[in-house]
Structures are given as C-alpha cells and as structure tokens.
Design a protein that fits this description.
Helix content is 41%, strand content 17%. The protein has 298 residues and is of the alpha/beta class. The chain has a single domain, classed as TIM Barrel. It holds the Pfam family MbnB_TglH_ChrH.
Length: 298
C-alpha cells in the first residue's frame, strides 16, 4: 500500500493551522479554553509513552474534541544504532488508544551508542545514506502500522563535499521509503540564510505531492549585533519571509495541516492563539489563490 493510500484509509485528516499541545497550557485546553479556535493539536508522543500523572488523562479528554497529530523527536532515523524495539512497541500501544493518521520524525540522527544526544544532527547527503534511512523509515511504518512522514531539519555545519545536495537527498529518501514529507518552511528559510542558497529554488526541487503536513515557526539570531547566524529556536513570532514560503507551498498544494511551532518563550495561550489566527490569515489567502488557479482554464 502506498503512503497516500495508507493515509486515505485512515480517519479524516485535519487541515488549517494547528498548535503544539504544550504542558504549559494543557490544563487550559482540557478546560475548553481553545475550543472552536484550533483545528487540531500536535503532540510529541515521546512525552506520553510510559508516563504517568495527569497528562495522559487530560490528553485523552482533549482527543475526544480535537484531531491529534503525532510528531516524534527520538527515533534517530539516520542513526547507526538499531531501532529501539521497546520504544516502538510502546508507541504502537499508545497509538492504539489515540490513533493519529500518521507519525512523523526528523530526517537526522539524534543518538549514538545507546546515548541520546538531545539534538537533531544532519546526515551525509549520499545515496548510501538515503538507502539506509529509507529502510529504517519503512521498518518504523510497519511496526507502527501507519504511514510515516520525515521532516527536513535545520543544520548549522556543512558536512563537506557530497554527491547530492540536501533537496536531492530528501527526495531520494522520500522515493525509496515511499513516505510523505513533513515540510518545515522555517527550516528551509534558516538553512538558506545560513548557507547562502535560494529557498524557492530548494522548494522547487521537492515533489509537492509528497507533502502531507507543514511546520512553520519563528527563529532568532545567535548574536543580535552580528546577525550572521540564524537559529531555529521556535521561540519567536513567524517572520514575513517565512510566511511567504508557506504561501508559496499552499498555493500549489491546496489545503494541508499546518503546525505553528512554539517551544521556547511560550506566551500565554490567548497570545499564541492570536498568532495562530495571524498565520491562518496567510494560509487562507494562499488557499484562495490556489482555488483561483484551479478554476483558471489557462
């Protein structure tokens, strides 16, 4: 079964601009503070699997009212260690209770020799690396019994001369794994600014029919005076340049779920909802242009 058929076989997929369900406001959401304001919530199941306390019960109540999407941090799809069978078993059981339409994780390695590195580190852009990652993505999809998406990451160090560029590497993984792409447009912008390439040329290489979900976020300068390195902090409002990349994609794809990420400097929920509304206005305008293009006989 192709990844698209696997997604189509699941429950209705949400669209629009959603938010990450953070512990700082989980109790407020549980009480109904965002009802009618958010089309879906995204969670990191790493924070729930084999955990006790009040969070699982609160999440279950939220899931009765909202669609839930799943985005992981710790599979280390590009790592050399074997996949963690116990963790995957725990994920599978968690998803049986809270069935998201897919699971996603990053196109990176994040652990080695049994140790978690607590960072998302880039991979060599080679066919050998793409083959190995694709095999691991297919294995995870089979073990979790649901489609997998991979996300393009931000990176701050070039790995030297490689036969592929990043976009070609991403495409090769997608095709070999027959998986979807969680396209992070802020990561594209950050990498383009830091490494000196055109973000639209990068996006033009990506098969947009593989894009299943989008991430958008804010970023900050490492040094506000020098302003020569941008860091993907998820700790600031989204900049207009990143809005423009979101628009470029949605004008071509149509409706998709878009996740507004905020993991640092998290504002009060009502302020974050206002930011979501602003991004949604960008998204809706792009959707209207997509509809106009669809209706244009030219």
């Amino acid at each position: 079964m192709s990844f698209r058929a696997g997604i189509a076989a699941r429950a209705a997929v949400p669209t629009g601009v959603g938010l990450g369900l953070r512990s700082t406001f989980l109790a407020e959401v549980d009480r109904g503070a965002a009802d009618g304001r958010v089309p879906f919530w995204e969670i990191s199941p790493d924070n729930y699997v084999a955990r006790g306390g009040s969070r699982p019960a609160r999440l279950a109540r939220v899931a009765e009212r909202f669609p839930i999407l799943s985005h992981g941090l710790s599979l280390s799809l590009g790592g050399l260690d074997p996949l963690d069978a116990d963790f995957l078993s725990g994920l599978h059981g968690f998803f049986e209770q809270l069935p998201p339409p897919w699971h996603s994780d990053h196109l990176c390695f994040s652990g080695h020799d049994g140790k978690m590195l607590h960072d998302l580190l880039p991979l060599p852009w080679t066919t050998a690396s793409a083959k190995r990652v694709a095999a691991r993505v297919r294995e995870v999809s089979q073990r979790l019994a649901r489609p997998m998406l991979v996300e393009n990451i931000s990176y701050y160090l070039s790995l030297g001369s490689t036969p592929l560029d990043e976009a070609a590497f991403v495409v090769e993984v997608l095709e070999r794994a027959d998986c979807g792409l969680l396209l992070d447009v802020n990561n594209v912008f950050v990498n383009a600014a830091n490494h000196g390439f055109d973000p639209l040329e990068w996006l033009a290489q990506i098969p947009l029919d593989r894009v299943v979900q989008l991430h958008i976020a804010g970023h900050e300068f490492w040094d506000d005076e020098r302003r020569d390195l941008i860091v993907d902090t998820h700790g600031a409002p989204v900049r207009s340049e990143v809005d423009a990349l979101l628009s470029w994609v949605v004008e071509r794809t149509g409706a998709l779920p878009v996740l507004l990420e905020r993991d640092e400097n998290i504002p009060p929920l009502q302020e974050l909802l206002a930011e979501r509304d602003r991004v949604d206005s960008v998204y809706q305008a792009a959707l209207a242009r997509h509809a106009a293009h669809q209706g244009d006989p030219a």
